[in-house]
Design a protein that fits this description.
412 residues, Growth Hormone, Chain: A, 15 helices, globular, mainly alpha, 0% strand
Length: 412
C-alpha cells in the first residue's frame, strides 16, 4: 500500500507528532496542577486518591469506545474534534472555578479530561501503522512514546513553576491555548481512511466491535489476555501507588515546594524520553522475554523510595532519591510499553487495530482506579515508607509471575 512507503518524518506523521506534543503538554500540565491544587486546598491523601480513582474510570470506559470509533471514523477528525472539545471544556472550567464547589468541580473536570484522553489515544495508536513503513514501526512507536514523555517532562516542570508563582489560573489559560492550537494543526493531517459499514445503531456497532476484539484476543492471541492481566496487576499494585504516593511523599512527608514536586514529576518525563530513545536505538535487539526483568527492576524502585522516606532521613537527600527513582521507573516502563505496542500492532489485522489496542489499554488500566482509592486511604493511615515497601514486595512477585507470559509473547 502507498502509506507503507511513507518515510518516518514525512509531513503527516510530523504533524501528528507536533500535535501530540502541544496537546499532551496541555493535558499533562492540567493533570499535574489540579490534583496538587486539590491536595493543597484539602490536605487529604484519601480525597486525592478518591478523585484520582474517579478520574481514571472514564478513561478505562472510553478507551474501548475510542478504539471502535478509530476503526470506523477518520482518525484526523477524531483528534481535531476532541482537542477542540477539550479547549472549550477547559475554558468553561476556568470560568466556573470560583463559582462552584471545588471538589465536585475538579472531580468532574478530571473525569471528562481523562475520558477524552482515553478516547483520543486509540486514534493516535491506530494511525501510526498507516503513516510509516512496517520496518520503521518500532521507531515510530518510540517517537510517539517519547512525545508523551516529553510532555510529561515539560508539563510538570512548567506547571510547578507557574503554580508556585501564580496559582492555578495561568495553567488553565495555557492549557486552553494548547488544545486549541493542536486542534487547528490536526485539521491539516491526511490519514488514509477506508470506511467500514456499521452494524446498525451506535450501541450495536460498539457492542459488535468490542465483541470482535475480544474474540480475536481469546481465540487467535490468547497470550494478549495474559499480558493484559500482568499489566493490570502491576498497575493495581505499583503504578497506582506511585500516582498517589509521589505527591504525598514529596509535599506532605518531606514538606517540599510545588516547584520541587514539579521537577520530580518532570524527571519521570525525562526518564520516559530516555526510555523511548533507547527503544528507538536498540530496535529489534530489544526482546520481550526481558519484560519480567524490567518489571522486577521497576518494583525495586518503590523499595528505594520507601527507604528514602524512613524517619530521620535527610529531607533534601530523600527528595533526590525519590526523583532519581521516578526517573528510573519511567525509563524501564517506556522501553517495555514500546515493545508491547509494536508486538500488538504487528500481530493484529489493520481493520482490528484500533479496537484491539484500545481493548488492551482498557483492561491493563482497569484496576488503577481501585488502586488509587485504596492507596489514598493507606497513605492517610499508614507511614508512606511502609506502604511503598509493601508495594515493592507485591510488585516483585507479579514480575516473577510474568516471566512465562513474556516468553510466550516473544516466541510468536
Amino acid at each position: 500500500m502507498k502509506q507503507s512507503k511513507t518515510p518516518l518524518f514525512e509531513r503527516d506523521f510530523a504533524l501528528v507528532v507536533a500535535g501530540q506534543i502541544i496537546s499532551l503538554f496541555g493535558n499533562v500540565i492540567l493533570r499535574f496542577a489540579l490534583p496538587l491544587y486539590l491536595l493543597r486546598q484539602t490536605g487529604s491523601p484519601a480525597l486525592l486518591g478518591a478523585v484520582g480513582a474517579a478520574a481514571f474510570i472514564p478513561a478505562v470506559l472510553c478507551s474501548p469506545i475510542g478504539g471502535v470509533v478509530a476503526d470506523r471514523v477518520n482518525k484526523q477528525n477524531i483528534m481535531a474534534a476532541l482537542d477542540f472539545s477539550t479547549a472549550g471544556l477547559t475554558l468553561a472550567f476556568t470560568l466556573l472555578l470560583e463559582q462552584a464547589q471545588l471538589v465536585p468541580l475538579i472531580a468532574a473536570f478530571l473525569m471528562i479530561l481523562y475520558g477524552i484522553a482515553g478516547a483520543y489515544q486509540p486514534a493516535v495508536q491506530a494511525s501510526v501503522p498507516l503513516l510509516v513503513r512496517p520496518e520503521r514501526l518500532t521507531s515510530a512507536n518510540a517517537v510517539i512514546n517519547m512525545v508523551s514523555t516529553l510532555a510529561g517532562l515539560l508539563g510538570p516542570a512548567a506547571g510547578g513553576m507557574l503554580f508556585g508563582a501564580f496559582g492555578i489560573r495561568p495553567i488553565l489559560w495555557v492549557s486552553t491555548a494548547c488544545f486549541f492550537l493542536s486542534a487547528v494543526m490536526e485539521l491539516f493531517i491526511r490519514i488514509p481512511h477506508h470506511p467500514r459499514p456499521g452494524a446498525g445503531g451506535v450501541l450495536s456497532t460498539v457492542a459488535q466491535d468490542l465483541d470482535e476484539s475480544w474474540r480475536f484476543c481469546r481465540r487467535e492471541k490468547p497470550v494478549f489476555l495474559s499480558v493484559m492481566l500482568v499489566l493490570a496487576l502491576f498497575n493495581l499494585v505499583l503504578s497506582a501507588a506511585l500516582i498517589v504516593g509521589i505527591p504525598v511523599g514529596v509535599v506532605q512527608v518531606l514538606g517540599m515546594s510545588d516547584t520541587r514536586l514539579g521537577f520530580t514529576q518532570a524527571s519521570m518525563g525525562l526518564g520516559g524520553l530516555l526510555g523511548g530513545l533507547l527503544a528507538a536505538c536498540l530496535g529489534e535487539r530489544l526482546r520481550l522475554r526481558q519484560g519480567s526483568a524490567i518489571l522486577l527492576c521497576a518494583s525495586l524502585t518503590a523499595a528505594v523510595m520507601g527507604a528514602a522516606l524512613l524517619p530521620g532521613a535527610p529531607l533534601r537527600a530523600a527528595w533526590w532519591v525519590i526523583t532519581a527513582m521516578s526517573f528510573s521507573i519511567m525509563v524501564l516502563s517506556t522501553m517495555l510499553i514500546v515493545q508491547l505496542s509494536t508486538a500488538a500492532q504487528r500481530q493484529t489485522p489493520p481493520e482490528l487495530l484500533g479496537k484491539v489496542m484500545a481493548f488492551i489499554m482498557a483492561v491493563s488500566n482497569c484496576a488503577s482506579p481501585l488502586g488509587q482509592a485504596v492507596y489514598g486511604g493507606l497513605f492517610e493511615i499508614c507511614p508512606a515508607w511502609a506502604v511503598l515497601m509493601g508495594v515493592s514486595v507485591a510488585a516483585a512477585l507479579i514480575a516473577l509471575y510474568s516471566r512465562r507470559v513474556f516468553r510466550r509473547l516473544d516466541s510468536l
